[in-house]
Structures are given as structure tokens and as C-alpha cells.
Amino acid sequence: MGLQTLDANGNMSWHCHSGEHDPLTAHISHEQVEHVAPDVVRLPPCPHCKAHSQMHLKVAFTPEELRASNMVDKNGRPTASYAMAQRHIQLKQQLEAAGKGYREPQAVEQDATQAIDEQEVLRLFQKLGYTARSLAEVAALIEQAQAAKG
Ligand SMILES: [Zn+2]
Prior knowledge:
Layout: E1 3-6, E2 11-14, E3 24-27, E4 34-37, E5 40-42, E6 56-58, H1 63-66, H2 80-97, H3 112-127, H4 135-149
The site of zinc ion has 6 residues, from loops.
């Protein structure tokens, strides 16, 4: 399973996992076309599938993988699998050229949402009768409780 087509302008098409729906299409600029790992790109979900499952494409191959038995037929000619692998490699290159290459997750920064979560956790702990002034203290209390239990 993978891309059926990818043109030079970044337009692609593929079949969803069900195999029952019309081919899906998207441009590489679609916000749900995402590089989720160095060698994996996730495509937008199929709107017709109940589970809205998303296709994950392998977009990087080792030379060994490209020489594997499924990549060439017995006459040494490239197979459909090889052509698909090349489309996926091309997709990775197009995404990188468009500034959508894989990025390592950023170090977690303290933002407003997390500050609220921390207050929520501290409140819950106070309800349980514990006093903790930070998530580090909460973690220490949990460790103590586990040590006491074990
Ligand atoms: Zn579908």
C-alpha cells in the first residue's frame, strides 16, 4: 500500500486501507501530510472510512532494501514495488524542498497549557491530603508511595 501517483508539482493519490473507496488525493502542502519520523510520512485520513485510519508511508530505503527480491523481477527489471519506493523517496525530497522535512521534536517548553495542567495536578493532590508545590514533588510523593507499597 502506498502512493499510486505523485507528480512533479506535489500532487499525489493513493487508496485508503479499506480498498473500497475512490482514490484519495492531496497536495504535499496539505497540513495533514506530515513527516512523523525520519523515514515515515503520514497522509490525511480517508473521509469515508469510519475509523478515519491514516496511511503511513515508508519514505526512506537502504540500498539493501532497494535490492531486495520484491524490488526486481526474475529478469532483473524493477517491479511495481520498486516504482512505489521511488515515489515515496520522491515524496520525502519534495517535502524537504517545501520546508516540511522531518524535525526532531522540540524540547518541551513551559507554555500556558502546561502551567494549567500542573495547577490541576497539584489541586488533585491537595484533595487527596498531600502537599506538593511542584510536579517534581508530586513525582517524589508517588515514588515514596510506590516504595512503601513494594
Ligand atoms: Zn476509505
